[in-house]
Amino acid sequence: MNDDLEQALLLAAADADSRNFEDQNLDEVDSGTVECKEAEFYKNITDTSDVGIERNTIDEECQDANVGSSNNELFEATKRKHVEVDEGADIVNESLKGYANVVATHYNQLEEKGLDERSKSRIVYLRNFHNWIKSMLINEYLTKIKDGKKHNAPVRVHDMCCGKGGDLLKWKKGNISHLICSDIASVSLDQCKTRYTDMKGRASRERGPGNIYTIEYIPGDCSRTRLREKYSDPSMKLDLVSCQFAFHYSFESLPQAECMLRNASDCLQPGGYFIGTIPDAYDLIARARRCGGNSYGNKVYRVSLDFDTNKPPLFGAKYNFHLDGVVDCPEFLVHFPTLVKLAKKFGLKLVRQEKFCDFFERMKMEGRNLMNNMRGLEAYPPPDAVTPVGIDPNDYVHAKEYIKASGDNNGRIGTLSKSEWEASSLYMAFVFEKVKNTWNADGAPIYDI
Ligand SMILES: C[S@@+](CC[C@H](N)C(=O)[O-])C[C@H]1O[C@@H](n2cnc3c(N)ncnc32)[C@H](O)[C@@H]1O
């Protein structure tokens, strides 16, 4: 791999200006209270759509709920209509599950592909690259956690929306003691169980201590169920909660986003971290505005936005995301400032927010060997000097130009195809830290964030 490979990557990403999504408006988000009073836009508000929810939806829901039209009431009405979340209990009304079933069915039906099959995929390097990002992120925060603990003190983790257990090995390498795995897709969770059993079997046959972390599984909707009550020990203190490529599903509605954040924070001890990866809403919108339509993509990914990009709602901003053979289901825009404000309520303070390209830039030297081992980048030109069948040479123009500019015509660099990079550069990583709290007279926690 070449030191300068990031430039080749960034060339492909140069087009991705993600900064022109108008910052939305709310100053305070709270369950039941959306106060936008101090926000600039609010001073002259005449149209309810300016609070970020389409007028039609609100009017209709207000009528249904027979409430007035103050923002608080509007939001309450929207909440009641979309979803009913019982504090700490499963969803009350089975018919109001929103898109949960669509998402669960999609993931349940995804075929479990073998290594051989996966390595033939058009996005094999993209998947490996994302695995590298997750590994580096997990390692970075597990290291911080362990640095603050006594040697050999137990480390407990919740892999929220764990899917088929793609990160099980990362937890083994991170030498954790206990893992909670939760997911809405029961078939995926079963596959996760099988993977863990196989891994444990292999570990016991390996030389060395042979024991790996203990595990428990929680099938269910993390955006509608309070998970703590389902833990084997609800008083358990967690050090890390990881939610990879999944938190955005909770932005279907405010109560769901809050429920997911409560689940992330509930058992996290002060100093513990909540880490995750999501699509960057600014970039999703910026690309739509640039192409002048609501659907865009390339041969490996396609995004179709189902809302007005000039007035994206704060919750329920639905789009369909298709990624070659891996994802094809509705997702929801995560307006990051809103997430940060909501997270505060649960004692979670933003530590870091980083686009994948910036993450790569920061970690590329430290993660060099791992990147090689994980085959997270593709060698260009291909080692056999013949472009493999089915590969579009136009996807590597940036790499070709980069090599030419370096003056080393025989050089070889590590890169991603332009199509894969365009998909990968949509994503960002986030890190929140749980802060200490005091208590108010009613016994509710007060966080100083
Ligand atoms: C893209 S996959 C990521 C899986 C895993 N975190 C990884 O990085 O390999 C998204 C996962 O989120 C799960 N998911 C989506 N919405 C969920 C919800 N509301 N509650 C629990 N799991 C959910 C899906 O079933 C799926 O397994």
UniProtKB/TrEMBL annotation:
The keyword Methyltransferase applies. Belongs to the class I-like SAM-binding methyltransferase superfamily. mRNA cap 0 methyltransferase family. It is found in: Nucleus. SUPFAM superfamilies: S-adenosyl-L-methionine-dependent methyltransferases. This is mRNA cap guanine-N(7) methyltransferase. GO terms for cellular component: nucleus. It catalyses: a 5'-end (5'-triphosphoguanosine)-ribonucleoside in mRNA + S-adenosyl-L-methionine = a 5'-end (N(7)-methyl 5'-triphosphoguanosine)-ribonucleoside in mRNA + S-adenosyl-L-homocysteine. InterPro entries: mRNA_G-N7_MeTrfase_dom (IPR004971), mRNA_G-N7_MeTrfase_euk (IPR016899), RG7MT1 (IPR039753), SAM-dependent_MTases_sf (IPR029063). S-adenosyl-L-methionine binds at residues 134, 161, 183, 221, 244, 249. Residues 121-435 form the MRNA cap 0 methyltransferase domain. GO terms for molecular function: mRNA 5'-cap (guanine-N7-)-methyltransferase activity; RNA binding. Keywords: Methyltransferase, mRNA capping, mRNA processing, Nucleus, RNA-binding, S-adenosyl-L-methionine, Transferase.
